[in-house]
Design brief:
Length: 843
C-alpha cells in the first residue's frame, strides 16, 4: 500500500521522541534528518549504476540496521556508514554529519545503544520504503524534510531558528521573481548567499519550467551540510553549497577575482547583523560592493547583504531579499544608500509581511524585489502592505494559501487594490524624502465606525452608514427598499423587527436569486471538475493536480460580487492539506483501489490489539451512506431512543437523589443496589417482591426480542399499599421500580444497537470486495471530495448574509432609542423611585 504523506510525517516526528529531552531541537534535528537522508539515498541509489550518488558496499541502510543493539553502534555508524559515504561522493563532507558517538548528546553505554537502535527501528518501518512510495515528479520526501525543518525551527526558539525560511515566504519570493514565466534552461543560475538549509533555493527551483543550476553559501558548517542533504532529497544532487562567511569570504568568484554573477539571487540574511564587518574592511572591499551606494552602518548589516545581492546579479538579473522594516525608513548612512538605490531604478517592489512569521525574530519584515534589466525604465516602485493577511499557528503567525496567492497576483499583475497595493511614482517617493515606510503610501486601516450625534438625538439610521453597504445594494437594490423607509433627509428607519431581519433578507426575491446564482455557479464547476478528477490515473502528479484544481476554482470565482474568491480558494487548499492530498497520493501510487486494513494498537504489554478496520480512500461512512442508509437510519433511531431513556434515568436520579429521596439509601445507583433495596422494602412492609420481567411487568409479545417499557404510573396494582406500607414507602418503591424498568430498557437497546452495528459493519466490509472502479470514483469524487467542498463554499454564502444582517442589526440597535426618549425614561424611573421612597417615609 502506498505511503500517505500524513503517515510519513507522523512517523518521522515520532522519531524525534527518541531524542527529545536529551538535547536541544537545533541539535537533535541533525540526527533525525541524517537518518532520513541515509534511508532515502540507500533506497533510491544503492546498487544502481550512474546514480548521482554512490552508495558504497557496507554503507546501505540495511548495513545500518545490522548495527542495532551493537555496543559500539555510535562509533560504527560514524566509521562504517557515514565515513565511506562521504568519501565516495564529492557533494558530501564528514563535516556535514553529526557525531553519532557523542555521549554528551546521546548518552553513554546502554542509553546510547537503546536510543540509536530505536531511532533506526522507526526508519526501518516497511511503509517507509522510499524506492516504491515516491510518485514520479513529486517530492514527498523533500516535503517531509521541510515539515521536519519547520517543526525543528519552531522548537529551536529565537536564537537558533534562523536555519529555516518559512516555506510560505519562500513561495512568495520564488513566484515574484518571475522565474516561472521565464525561458529557463539548465544553465540558468540561482544563488542564495545565506542559504541556511536550502529551502528558499529549492522553492525557486520548483517554480522554474526547467530546473536551474543552484548555488548557495552558508556560514554555519552544520547547516550547510543539511542544505546539501536537502538538495539531494529534492533531486538536486548537483547543487553547489559552500560553507563560509559570505560577506568576508564569498566562495563564488570569477577568474578575474570579481564576484560571480547570477540570473536570480534570493536571500533571507540575519536581521540587522551587528557583526557583519567581522573579517572584512568595508572601506576597502576587494569586490567593490559598497563603492556605488556607500558603506552601511557598522552595527546594521541589512544593506550590506542587499548590496552583495545587487553586486551578484547579472545585468539582466532579478533578486529578492527578506529584510526588517527598518531598512525602509532608518536614517543616516542607510538613508543615503536607500536614496541612491531608489534613483538607480534597481528597486522594483516592496512587499510588507505580517509580524512574527520568522523563527529567528518576531519583528515584521519585508521583501525587497530587485530587477536590473529594466532599471532605466522604472517610473515607480510597486508596494504591497500584506501585514493583515495571516492566521495564528501556535505562538507564530503563518501565511495562508490565500494570502500567498493574493500577494503574488497583485505583484505580478501590478494590481492596485485599495488599502493593499499600488504603484507609487518615484516623484511621490522623492517628496517623502525617499522614506519607503509603507503606511506613507498605503492606508490599510479599517474604516472608523463613526457615531452619528444627530441620530442619537433624533433617531433613525444614518444613510451614510447604509451607503457603506453599497456592494450589497448593487446586487439587491430592491432589498434595501424593502428593509428601510425614509425618516427624514439623510436618515432611515428599519421596516422589520430586528429578530426577523435574517428571515426577511433570506426570503427576498433578489437575495434568493443571488444565492441561487451562486449555487448554480458552483454546480457548473462541480460538473467539470468531477469529470477531470475521475480521470486521475496511477502515476499522476498530485502537486500538478492541486495546482490545476485550485487555479481553476479561483478563476471560476474571481469577479463574483460579494464573494471573496481567495476565501473560496482557501477552503480547497485546507481540504487538500487535511484529506485530499493523501487520497490523491494513494491514487497516484495504487489507482482507484478501496483497500481496507486492520487497525492495530499496542496494549500496555506491547502486544498488538485489533481495534477494527478502516479504509483511507473510501471511509466506511461513505459506504454506509450510499448502500446501507436504511440500516443506519434504524440504528440512529434506536440510538436516539437510548439517549432519551438515559436522559430519563438521569432525570429520575436527580429528582429522587436528595437526602430524603428514593435513592438516598443507596451508595451506588445500579441494578443490583436497586433490587436489594426493593427486597428490603418487601421485608419491612410485606409488599409482594419485585421481579422485573415477571408478574410486575406485562408479558412481552413473542415477536419482539426487546422488553416493553413499563408505564408504572398506569399499573395501580403495583402500588397496592399494605397496612404496614406508608406513603413514603410507596413513593420510594415506585421510583425504584421506574428506574429498574428504564435501566432494563436501556440495556436492551444497547444490546440491539450493538447487534445491528455488528451486522452493518460486516455488510459494509463485504461491500468493499464488490466495488467496481466506477463505484469507487463516485464514492471518492462525488460523495467525499465535492460534497465536502460544497459544504465549505456554501459557508461563504452564509457569511455574506450574516455580515449584512449583523451590521444592520448593530445600526438599528445603536439608534433605536433617541436621547430625549432616554431622558424621559430616566425621569420616569426617578419619579417612581421617589414615590416609593416617600411611601417608606424616606426623605
Amino acid at each position: 500500500m502506498a505511503l500517505k504523506k500524513s503517515d510519513l510525517y507522523s512517523s518521522l516526528w515520532a522519531s524525534c521522541d527518541e531524542l527529545r529531552g536529551g538535547m536541544d531541537a537545533s541539535q537533535y534535528k541533525d540526527y533525525v534528518l541524517v537518518f532520513l537522508f541515509l534511508k532515502y539515498v540507500s533506497d533510491k541509489y544503492a546498487g544502481k549504476a550512474f546514480a548521482p550518488l554512490t552508495i558504497p558496499s557496507g554503507s546501505t541502510f540495511a548495513d545500518l540496521v545490522a548495527l542495532k543493539g551493537s555496543k559500539d553502534i555510535g562509533d560504527d555508524i560514524n566509521k562504517k556508514i557515514i565515513a565511506p559515504l562521504a568519501a565516495a561522493n564529492d557533494q558530501l563532507s564528514l563535516n556535514d554529519f553529526p557525531d553519532f558517538n557523542d555521549a554528551s548528546k546521546l548518552g553513554s553505554g546502554k542509553e546510547m545503544v537503546d536510543r540509536l537502535t530505536n531511532l533506526i527501528g522507526i526508519f526501518q518501518t516497511p511503509g517507509l520504503d522510499f524506492s516504491k512510495n515516491r510518485a514520479e515528479g513529486d517530492d514527498i520526501l523533500g516535503d517531509a524534510y521541510e515539515y521536519l525543518m519547520r517543526h525543528f525551527a519552531t522548537e529551536s526558539g529565537k536564537s537558533k531558528g534562523q536555519f529555516y525560511t518559512p516555506a510560505e515566504v519562500s513561495r512568495i519570493m520564488a513566484q515574484v521573481l518571475g522565474i516561472g514565466q521565464a525561458e529557463t534552461t539548465a544553465s540558468t543560475t540561482v544563488y542564495d548567499p545565506t542559504c541556511g538549509s536550502g529551502s528558499l533555493l529549492l522553492k525557486v527551483a520548483d517554480e522554474a519550467r526547467v530546473r536551474p543550476t543552484l548555488y548557495g553559501q552558508e556560514k554555519d558548517t552544520t547547516t550547510a551540510g543539511l542544505a546539501r542533504m536537502n538538495m539531494i532529497l529534492h533531486d538536486c544532487p548537483t547543487a553547489t553549497i559552500s560553507p563560509g562567511n559570505t560577506l568576508a569570504d564569498p566562495k563564488f568568484i570569477q577568474s578575474d577575482g570579481s564576484l560571480a554573477s547570477f540570473d536570480y539571487v534570493v536571500a533571507n540574511p540575519p536581521f540587522s547583523d551587528k557583526r557583519w564587518t567581522t573579517g572584512l574592511d568595508p572601506e576597502n572591499d576587494p569586490f567593490e560592493r559598497f563603492t556605488a551606494f556607500g558603506v552601511p552602518p557598522a552595527k546594521q548589516g541589512d544593506y550590506a547583504y542587499l548590496l552583495h545581492i545587487l553586486r551578484s546579479l547579472k545585468s539582466t538579473g532579478t533578486g529578492a531579499c527578506i529584510l526588517p522594516h527598518g531598512v525602509l525608513f532608518r536614517g543616516n548612512a542607510e538613508a543615503a544608500i536607500r536614496k541612491k538605490l531608489i534613483r538607480s531604478g534597481y528597486l522594483k517592489g516592496i512587499i510588507g509581511l505580517p509580524a512574527n512569521l520568522f523563527y529567528g525574530t518576531g519583528i515584521p519584515a519585508c521583501i525587497l524585489v530587485l530587477e536590473k534589466g529594466h532599471a532605466h525604465e522604472r517610473e515607480g516602485i510597486f508596494m504591497i502592505d500584506a501585514s493583515g493577511g495571516f492566521m495564528k499557528d501556535g505562538n507564530k503567525n503563518r501565511l495562508r494559501s490565500r494570502d500567498i496567492h493574493k500577494i503574488v497576483d497583485a505583484f505580478t499583475k501590478g494590481s492596485g487594490i485599495d488599502g493593499y497595493s499600488r504603484l507609487v511614482p518615484l516623484a511621490e517617493i522623492e517628496k517623502n524624502d525617499f522614506n519607503l515606510n509603507l503606511p506613507r503610501y498605503i492606508d490599510n486601516r479599517e474604516a472608523e465606525d463613526i457615531q452619528d450625534i444627530e441620530a442619537h438625538l433624533h433617531g433613525g439610521i444614518p444613510a451614510a452608514d447604509l451607503d457603506a453597504l453599497a456592494d450589497y445594494w448593487k446586487v439587491c437594490p430592491g432589498l434595501q427598499k424593502s428593509l428601510f423607509k425614509a425618516n427624514r433627509p439623510g436618515y432611515l428607519d428599519l421596516t422589520v423587527e430586528t429578530n426577523g431581519l435574517k428571515d426577511a433578507t433570506h426570503a427576498h426575491a433578489e437575495f434568493a436569486a443571488f444565492v441561487g446564482g451562486l449555487e448554480t455557479h458552483f454546480d457548473a464547476w462541480r460538473k467539470s471538475t468531477a469529470k477531470s478528477l475521475r480521470g486521475l490515473e496511477p502515476g499522476c502528479h498530485p502537486k500538478q493536480v492541486i495546482h490545476d484544481l485550485s487555479e481553476g476554482l479561483l478563476a471560476h470565482y474571481l469577479g463574483r460580487p460579494l464573494l471573496d474568491a481567495y476565501a473560496v480558494y482557501q477552503h480547497l487548499m485546507d481540504y487538500w492539506a487535511e484529506t485530499m492530498q493523501d487520497d490523491v497520493y494513494l491514487i497516484a501510487a495504487d489507482g482507484w483501489k478501496a483497500e481496507t486494513y486492520r487497525i492495530l494498537v499496542e496494549d500496555k504489554k506491547g502486544k498488538p490489539k485489533d481495534k477494527g478496520w478502516t479504509c483511507d480512500l473510501v471511509p466506511k461512512a461513505l459506504i454506509v451512506a450510499r448502500y446501507f442508509a436504511k440500516e443506519q437510519t434504524a440504528i440512529d433511531a434506536r440510538q436516539a431512543e437510548l439517549e432519551s431513556v438515559t436522559a430519563q434515568l438521569t432525570e429520575l436520579e436527580e429528582e429522587h437523589g436528595g437526602e430524603d429521596g428514593a435513592f438516598s439509601e443507596l451508595e451506588k445507583v445500579n441494578a443490583a443496589a436497586v433490587k436489594a433495596r426493593l427486597k428490603e422494602i418487601k421485608r419491612s412492609t410485606g409488599v409482594p417482591p419485585v421481579n422485573p420481567g415477571s408478574r410486575n411487568k406485562p408479558a412481552r409479545p413473542q415477536e419482539s426480542p426487546e422488553p416493553e417499557l413499563l408505564r408504572v404510573a398506569e399499573d395501580p396494582a403495583i402500588y397496592h399499599i399494605t397496612p404496614k406500607e406508608t406513603d413514603d414507602d410507596a413513593i420510594e418503591r415506585q421510583a425504584l421500580l421506574e428506574w429498574l424498568n428504564l435501566s432494563d430498557r436501556a440495556s436492551a437497546l444497547k444490546k440491539t444497537i450493538k447487534q445491528a452495528e455488528a451486522k452493518l459493519d460486516a455488510a459494509a466490509y463485504a461491500k468493499y470486495l464488490k466495488l467496481t472502479e466506477d463505484e469507487v470514483k463516485t464514492l471518492v469524487v462525488d460523495d467525499k471530495w465535492l460534497v465536502t467542498l460544497d459544504t465549505a463554499i456554501h459557508g461563504e454564502i452564509d457569511r455574506i448574509e450574516q455580515a449584512l444582517t449583523s451590521r444592520v442589526k448593530e445600526l438599528a440597535g445603536r439608534y433605536a432609542t433617541p436621547l430625549p426618549e432616554l431622558t424621559t425614561r430616566v425621569a420616569d424611573f426617578e419619579a417612581k423611585v421617589a414615590a416609593h421612597l416617600a411611601k417608606m417615609s424616606y426623605d
